[in-house]
Write a structure and sequence with these properties.
By secondary structure, the chain is α/β, with parallel strands linked by helices. The protein folds into two domains: 167 residues, Medium-chain alcohol dehydrogenases, catalytic domain (Quinone Oxidoreductase, Chain A, domain 1), CATH 3.90.180; 134 residues, NAD(P)-binding Rossmann-like Domain (Rossmann fold, 3-Layer(aba) Sandwich), CATH 3.40.50. It contains ten helices and 15 strands.
């Protein structure tokens, strides 16, 4: 099979399409032929080792000190595809089913085939839902679920600000906040204002013209969610309500550590973490997508053989939504 492989850290040019062994299928595994996947900000950061300040040693230990270890050389955290083989002990899935899946270690989806345990993060794709759309809502969708629902316990009527609202995660956060009945303010460039308003934003702040921190007053927001990593707890808390939360999707090491010490059961809180999607999470995303409660936002689509261009697009940090990669032209 073909897969997008990188054997050293660097720019998009370090990713190559190489032949790899088709993964083995154990008794309780399913083999999925990938139809669509995405290149997201996490893939870009790992490939280029451009992780938030203070995390480089930790990330190198996880993925490879001098270069990515073999088990981490194929990126990609999620996919949509078709089951083409099942292990002899599999009881929940069958050949021919369309499914989405999240990879156990957030790597491995940029390949023509993946093998996963049937009790992993897998869910069926509803009839009528395009594979590209299904793949596009996974990364941002389960991140939004984690930060707004699990960490943030979002409530109807709350006031939520999303910093970096037009990317994959930001767009999903906007939609989840609106779904829960929150009033959403988006921070993004003026050219993306119409886009986030279509997703349900009540107000848009153009960061190229004004710093929202200069205009907010105490109690303006119940939740501030940072998808960019350029906000800090000291400044954000001034605009939070008495029980407000600062939710950091991405942050440097020291702010992340500080968040752990500032966590408490009452009063203002600063929280961060890492989402670990389950099959139940993916089923819910597919249900929302099928019901029209979640809009797939696709910035651009590339074939597997154009994986370098896909990485380059993500590296611009100007994508709107998701960069999708399909296997259509990969022989």
């Amino acid at each position: 099979m073909k897969a997008a492989v990188f054997t050293r850290y660097g720019g998009p040019e370090v990713v190559s399409i190489l032949e790899q062994p088709k993964p083995a299928v154990g008794p309780k595994d399913v083999l999925i032929r990938t139809h669509a996947t995405t290149v997201n900000s996490g893939d870009s950061r790992i490939r280029g080792m451009r992780v938030p300040a203070g995390f480089v040693p930790m990330v190198r230990l996880m993925f490879g000190i001098f270069g990515p270890r073999r088990s981490s050389q194929v990126l990609g955290s999620s996919l949509a595809g078709e089951i083409v083989e099942v292990g002899e002990a599999v009881s929940h899935y069958e050949v021919g089913q369309r499914v989405v899946a999240s990879m156990p270690k957030s790597t491995g989806a940029h390949a023509q085939f993946v093998s996963l345990p049937e009790d992993g993060a897998i869910a069926t794709v509803p009839d009528g839902v395009r594979m590209e759309d299904a793949a596009s809502v996974l990364f941002g969708g389960h991140t939004a679920q984690y930060f707004l629902e699990e960490l943030g316990s979002i409530q109807s009527g709350e006031k939520v600000l999303v910093n970096g609202a037009s990317g994959s995660v930001g767009a999903a956060l906007v939609q989840f906040a609106v779904y829960h009945g929150a009033t959403v303010t988006c921070v993004c460039s003026g050219k993306n204002a119409a886009l986030v308003r279509e997703l349900g934003a009540a107000q848009v702040i153009d960061y190229t013209e004004v710093n929202f921190l200069d205009t907010c007053a105490p109690g303006d927001y119940d939740k501030v969610v940072d998808c960019v990593g350029n906000l800090n707890w000291h400044d954000v808390r001034k605009g939070l309500s008495a029980q407000g939360m600062f939710l950091m999707v991405i942050a440097d090491f020291w702010p992340t550590l500080r968040a752990g010490f500032s966590t408490k059961t009452k009063g203002q809180r600063c929280l961060t973490g890492t989402s670990n999607p389950s099959a139940k999470d993916l089923r819910r995303l597919m249900d929302m997508l099928n019901a029209g409660l979640l809009t797939p936002l696709i910035d651009s689509t590339y074939s597997l053989t154009e994986i370098q261009q896909a990485h380059a697009r993500v590296d611009t940090e100007r994508k709107r939504g998701n960069v999708v990669v399909t296997m259509k032209t990969a022989a």
